């Protein structure tokens, strides 16, 4: 399964090579042109049949994770976060380090040795370490080096009815959707872009948007689902099983109303489920894309995912498949004059 292979690949910010190579192999026969820019964005192009608006579809390849910054004399590894990670979810988690995917476990002072105050708070990142079973620094240096990345060692699997769990749904789910759309034919010309370094500042998107300068952009994401106990319904960001989530705004962008309306109309015309993302925290590549040059009309549509930015997330496959169908039909709508810049 494509989504399984994408989520289990390692692709930290600035280290997206494994994911990019996997995607290249998947799309090489589906597009008219493909290149990688200086920052590492993978840019593909599929020429349309009509002289209409040029559409940029984007999803980021990178995931949250850790970077090794120091090797102690006792062989334990110190690290810094890459992207937003809650320290509370790290202790005892399995990780894979560097290109050799050396296995390790995130450790800390044992709870029975912690004082009362320490037990009341999340263990800070500078008190955590990664144990790879090395006896000393020299032995550890044979396996890993400073600057290596560490990703969570999480296997993709089906759970419950119609749901899957795995790591890096933010945003391998978007990459998978983008690949599935490239398998289809459209009359409009499409740039399908797999961006880098979104998790550390939306960096790849700003470069590629300046390069391509499309007529409009649609960003695919895996977004927070907060439909869990101890949350009031009005605090839900999105809910699993209620369809893809269309963003009205977040901290980085106010979505273009024409694109939002077009997506909503398309969903209603075709009897497809959808929901609005009901919180405005976080940011996406659209935050940089829409500010490029004279401005690029941009919007975001996402698959709701529980426990995002953690070692394992959960999503509903119906939401995923509905997003593909909705965007597919919206692209056909654009070709018939459904958007004017």
Describe the model.
With 341 residues, the protein is an alpha+beta fold. It has two domains: 234 residues, Zn peptidases (Aminopeptidase), CATH 3.40.630.10; 87 residues, Elongation Factor Tu (Ef-tu), domain 3 (Beta Barrel). The strands form two sheets. Strands 1, 2, 3, 10, 11, 12, 13, 14, 15, 16 and 17 form an eleven-stranded mixed β-sheet that branches. It has a six-stranded antiparallel β-sheet with strand order 5-4-9-6-7-8. β14, α7 and β15 form a beta-alpha-beta unit. The longest helix is centred in the last third of the chain and has 22 residues. GO terms for molecular function: aminopeptidase activity; metal ion binding. It comes from Anoxybacter fermentans.
What's the CATH topology name of the largest domain?
Aminopeptidase
The CATH class of the largest domain is Alpha Beta
- Percent of residues in beta strands? 25-35%
Write the CATH homologous superfamily of the largest domain. Zn peptidases
- The residue ranges in which pLDDT falls below 50 over 5 or more consecutive positions are none
**What is the radius of gyration computed over CA atoms, rounded to a whole number of angstroms?**
21 Å
């Amino acid at each position: 399964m494509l989504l399984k292979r994408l989520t289990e690949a390692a692709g930290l910010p600035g280290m997206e090579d494994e994911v990019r190579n996997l995607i290249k192999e998947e799309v090489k026969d589906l597009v008219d042109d493909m290149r990688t820019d200086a920052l590492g964005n993978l840019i593909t192009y599929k020429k349309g049949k009509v002289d209409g608006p040029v559409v940029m579809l984007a999803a980021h390849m990178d995931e949250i994770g850790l970077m090794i910054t120091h090797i102690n004399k006792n062989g334990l590894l110190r690290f810094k976060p890459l992207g937003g990670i809650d320290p509370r979810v790290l202790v005892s988690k399995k990780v894979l380090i560097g290109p050799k995917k050396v296995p390790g476990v995130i450790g800390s002072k044992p709870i029975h040795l912690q004082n009362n105050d320490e037990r009341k708070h999340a263990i800070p990142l500078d008190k955590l370490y990664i144990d790879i079973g090395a006896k000393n620094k020299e032995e550890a240096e044979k396996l890993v080096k400073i600057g290596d990345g560490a990703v969570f060692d999480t296997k993709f699997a089906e759970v419950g009815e119609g749901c899957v769990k795995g790591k890096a749904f933010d945003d391998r789910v978007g990459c998978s959707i983008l690949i599935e759309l490239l398998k289809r034919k459209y009359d409009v010309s499409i740039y399908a872009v797999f961006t880098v370094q979104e998790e550390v500042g939306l960096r790849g998107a700003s470069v590629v948007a300046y390069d391509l300068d499309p007529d409009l952009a649609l960003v695919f994401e895996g977004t927070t689902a907060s439909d869990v106990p101890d949350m009031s319904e009005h605090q839900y960001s999105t809910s699993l099983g209620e369809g893809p989530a269309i963003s009205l705004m977040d901290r980085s962008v106010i979505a273009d109303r024409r694109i939002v309306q077009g997506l909503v109309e398309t969903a209603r015309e075709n009897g497809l489920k959808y929901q609005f993302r009901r919180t405005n925290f976080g940011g996406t590549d659209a935050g940089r894309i829409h500010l490029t040059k004279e401005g690029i009309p941009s919007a975001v549509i996402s698959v709701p995912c529980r426990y995002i930015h953690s070692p394992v997330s959960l999503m509903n496959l119906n939401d995923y498949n509905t997003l593909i169908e909705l965007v597919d039909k919206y692209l056909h709508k654009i070709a018939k004059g459904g958007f004017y810049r």
